[in-house]
Protein: tRNA N6-adenosine threonylcarbamoyltransferase
Organism: Thiohalocapsa halophila
Amino acid sequence: MRVLGIETSCDETGVAVFDGAAGLLAHTVHSQVDLHAAYGGVVPELASRDHIRRLTPLIRLVMAEAGTTAADIDGVAYTAGPGLVGALLVGAGLGRSLAWGWGVPAIGVHHMEGHLLAPLLEEPAPAFPFVALLVSGGHTQLVEVAAAGRYRLLGESVDDAAGEAFDKTAKILDLPYPGGPALAKLAEQGEPGRYVFPRPMTDRPGLDFSFSGLKTFALNTVREELAHRSDTEQARADIARAFEDAVVETLVIKCRRAVEAAGVDRLVLAGGVSANRRLRERVDAMMAQRSGRAFYPRLALCTDNGAMIAFAGHQRLAAGQSEALAFTAMPRWPLDALPELWDE
């Protein structure tokens, strides 16, 4: 089965073709970073309009690179949620229309299921069961994965997601958009231990997260320290390092608890923040101490992309699931509300 995948949940337009026998044939992503940089964040209406402009040319490009025509496509997968409703409707509308015109089934894919399954595109792929940390701009979740389509939410952020906290703290430090990667780059120049930020919700049981307090702590530290230190650039780097260390250690502590509770030795990290170098190093070290292993998608598949949607859609279409002619977009959509992939 050969599936066209379309991702338009936020500010990346992703398209891919995945073949069940041959694997990922082609994929591309158009980023809207330059479009939104002047505003310091994603403007939903601008995002939707740019998806409209980019999507059809990108589909033509990817299908040509994959050596695929409409006659070769056996199904279409598109992101149905969660995300920005206008952006979702662009991809869902075109994806469902193409499937109808080509006479093939269509499936609306959960954006976070796409991230969760993205490491299965790599070699070696993690075996089931495993625990997944889904960590991005909009989500921070720990999920127990018994099999594809069988998920149990273990914990999530009660306020800001980790990526959102990165971006907001980057604004406090007057860093350019997108803030998360800029903060991580600045943190490379910071002195470890110069400042110590709290590790929120690690002094109590449970697997939920809270990162909004770190943002406030960073704001207060900036106000106090930049007024007293003459080396303001180094001070900014030291604060960035302290913030990154706090987020990373918090994530690692919770991941350790999750794999211990689930009794597994495999941990999957996915989502944009999973590309963070320091996070990967700390997670790898933690899992090595447990004689386990961490799995990640390649860097190009950490951020939003069509490949993960094509792959996740392929799994569900192959299981006989598909959408009716009507389609919908779901800005909010709990991951554990998804139907199981295979009936037992």
The radius of gyration is 20 Å. The first strand starts at residue 2 and ends at 7.
